[in-house]
Design brief:
This protein is mainly alpha-helical. The chain is 75% helix and 0% strand. The chain starts with a helix and ends with a helix.
Length: 128
Amino acid sequence: MHGLLWFYVVVYGVLLLGNAYFWLRHHGQPGILLYELLSGTYLLFMVLLFIYPSWQQGAVMLWLTMAVPMVLGAECYLAIFGDLEKHLKTVSDHRMTGAELETARGISVLFSAPAYIIAAKVFIDRFF
């Protein structure tokens, strides 16, 4: 089980780096890029807390896990209602179509869903 989760951590990390490359290549707003990298890294950290429950000791972990609902809420809002096209500047050689943006959004949600579920489980186990 841990091997499969480690595989997921690596794949999700590569997805984060690919997402960062996409935003840089298409001249996306730096605030969105920073948010994506920070939230993705945070969700990966929650997966690692799930893999290694001994890391959850102490008050520091209590404060670190309190942000899970906020991050999940922001991720869900951006995935459902976020208009990615308005955050991308026009690129002269290539303009993403609506279908390409929807495909990118779907792939992002598909690969992020396990991290969302695991982060929610870590939060629930910690507080309830």
